[in-house]
Amino acid sequence: MAFRFFAKSLLYGLPLGITFFDCVGYVARVDGTSMQPALNPVADVRDYVFLLRWGNHNSDVERGDIISLVSPKDPGQKIIKRVVGLQGDVVSTIGYRDPIVSVPQGHCWVEGDHTGHSLDSNTFGPVALGLMTAKAVAIVWPPERWRLLENELPRRRAPIQVAKTSHYN
Amino acid sequence: MIINWKRLSNIVRYTVAYAAITHCTFEYIGDFVLCKGPSMEPTLFTDNVLVTERLTKHWRGYKPGDIIIAVSPTNSKQCVCKRVVAVSGQEVHIAQPRSVANKTKPGMIKSYVPRGHIWIEGDNKDNSCDSRDYGPIPVGLIRSRVVYRVWPLADACGEL
């Protein structure tokens, strides 16, 4: 009887949980130093961030948002970066094959805050917005690091020229 | 008016549970897609309904010849249905980049699909916006693989 009850709750509870994680958001651990100092400022302490999926269906991101996206080089890996340029922006690059890049339609330019220690658009170029999975909104763990993540873009990394309208059409 | 609270809560609970099960089925196992546009024309036509699956990518991956549904790289609100021509590491022939400065003749050059990317083309080569325009697309953009056509019934077939 107990087993049947357990199996039944699993049958209903598992899809409910997955749906919740898919639609509302989930917590994920940040690995690596590429987003220092915003995330993982101390080397051995990993931050856990809340990734919001609610309201991301039409992928409207803004410059300065921290987003998680599927790595364009390895589809099994997710990376977390800051959006620097949106479609139509002209951004100056650091070590990319072109010194200045105009972000194509439907793409964005993402960079880690830790310039030079981050595998980002300076390596693989502009990324398609369809690869974005969620937006990082808060650090939830460890407790002393609890805070909301601000939408901030260092002035030195702002696009050279911002597109007049955020959408082409 | 008397509201039967027990019955109401039962209805709500079942609705939520089945909505969640439906979501998981469509998101992780497979779903139905309505095909629009002429780019896959000899194979698929406008208003065909396709069954797609998302399971075999975990052990089989994508192979040349598969028809896939992917998020359009130029517009993340739109999906495209194309055929995989080459996967990462294979070679493709692309139109030579031309510029006004060096008057090269139109021709094809050999290129390799980079790691984690895939080369997709529509079957209707003359009327298709695909990797020949925007280059190889990341595998992460692929949503599902088409396995069956269920509508129209006369053309229903498997393994397109």
UniProtKB/TrEMBL annotation, chain A:
Pfam family example for this protein? Peptidase_S26
One term of GO molecular function: serine-type endopeptidase activity
Q: Which residues form the Peptidase S26 domain?
A: 25-92, 102-141
Q: How does it sit in the membrane?
A: Single-pass membrane protein
> Which CDD domains does the annotation name?
S26_SPase_I (cd06530)
Keywords, alphabetical = Hydrolase, Membrane, Mitochondrion, Mitochondrion inner membrane, Protease, Transmembrane, Transmembrane helix
**Coiled-coil annotated residue ranges, if any:** none
* InterPro entries registered for this protein in UniProt: IMP2, LexA/Signal_pep-like_sf, Pept_S26A_signal_pept_1, Peptidase_S26
Q: Where in the cell is it found?
A: Mitochondrion inner membrane
Predominantly, its location class is mitochondrion
Q: Which domain of life is it from?
A: Eukaryota
Extract one GO BP annotation from the record: signal peptide processing
Annotated membrane-spanning segments are none
| Active site residues per record | 34, 81
What does the entry list under GO cellular component? mitochondrial inner membrane peptidase complex
The record's note on quaternary structure and interaction partners says: Heterodimer of 2 subunits, IMMPL1 and IMMPL2.
Kindly give the PANTHER family that the UniProt entry links to this protein: MITOCHONDRIAL INNER MEMBRANE PROTEASE SUBUNIT 2
The entry's family comment says: Belongs to the peptidase S26 family. IMP2 subfamily.
Name recorded for this polypeptide = Mitochondrial inner membrane protease subunit 2
UniProtKB/TrEMBL annotation, chain B:
- Active-site feature positions: 39, 82
Entry EC no(s): 3.4.21.-
Which SUPFAM superfamilies does the annotation name?
LexA/Signal peptidase
What residues does the Peptidase S26 domain cover? 11-96, 110-151
Broad class of enzyme this protein falls into: hydrolase
Give the principal location in a single coarse category.
Answer: mitochondrion
Keyword Hydrolase among record annotations:
yes
Subunit structure, interactors included: Heterodimer of 2 subunits, IMMPL1 and IMMPL2.
Q: What's the protein here called?
A: Mitochondrial inner membrane protease subunit
